[in-house]
Specification:
Keywords: Antiviral defense, Endonuclease, Hydrolase, Nuclease, RNA-binding. This is CRISPR system Cms endoribonuclease Csm3. The protein is an alpha+beta fold. It is built from five helices and ten strands. A hairpin with a 2-residue loop joins strand 3 and strand 4.
């Protein structure tokens, strides 16, 4: 019964998304805060670590009910058991059942006429003297699509449905929140669509498990 389940879906950007990359070696006049990019293609990516961290945080927050309670609990290693077995821990070392791959841009050709990113200029206004401090933030444009791939390790067949139900819940919460930075100012709204599940070595009813993610497909804050 042990094996793996590959979960694939499309992550579509609904409002400009900023997941920051390094600007340590930017040329003079370059954007202040660039997005992270694939060094091979030059296109933006969604790091697996960003998606994993956001889903874990949203699930922990929903469990504790508020940020203060979550903060009092301490480190991620003290998360509830059902979260630990999905995302792992460092003390003690515990292997994650989920493996998140970096998500690469899948519709670059479709966006070739408009470009993949935009530069959003913002002003931070000093309350003391009203002096403006302009900054430029690079964002992946609305309409960009990324291919998400998540591998789930089947280590206890009796817990598969519960585990994937929790993952689906995190994805629903993500669609009501944001991914990346500057979300409180409108950036980072995303949709998760077109789910597909593939089994490797595990004899599971994938159609029943896929129904968990079909609910995610229609659960979003912005549909246009």
């Amino acid at each position: 019964m042990y094996g793996k389940i590959l979960i694939r879906c499309d992550l579509e950007v609904r409002t400009g998304m900023h997941i920051g990359g390094s600007s340590a070696f930017s040329a003079i006049g370059a954007v202040d805060s660039p997005v992270v990019r694939d060094p091979y293609t030059g296109y933006p990516i969604v790091p697996g670590s960003s998606l994993k961290g956001k889903l874990r945080t949203l699930l922990a927050r929903s469990t504790y009910q508020d940020i203060e309670a979550m903060a009092k609990a301490g480190s991620c290693d003290k998360d509830p058991e059902q979260i630990l077995r999905l995302f792992g821990s460092s003390e003690p070392v515990r292997r994650s059942r989920l493996q998140f791959a970096d998500a690469f841009l899948s519709n670059a050709k479709e966006l070739s006429n408009v470009g993949v990113t935009e530069v959003k200029t913002e002003n931070a206004i000093s309350r003391a003297n009203s002096v403006a401090n302009p900054r430029q933030i690079e964002r992946v444009i609305a309409g960009a699509k990324f291919g998400v791939s998540i591998v789930y390790d089947v280590t206890d067949p009796a817990q598969v449905k519960e585990d994937l139900s929790l993952l689906a819940k995190g994805m629903k919460l993500l669609q009501m929140d944001y991914l990346g930075g500057h979300g409180s100012r409108g950036s980072g709204r995303v949709s998760l669509k077109n789910f597909a599940l593939e089994g490797y070595g595990a004899q599971m009813d994938l159609s029943r498990l896929k129904s968990l993610f079909d609910e995610v497909d229609s659960y979003e804050l912005f549909s246009v």
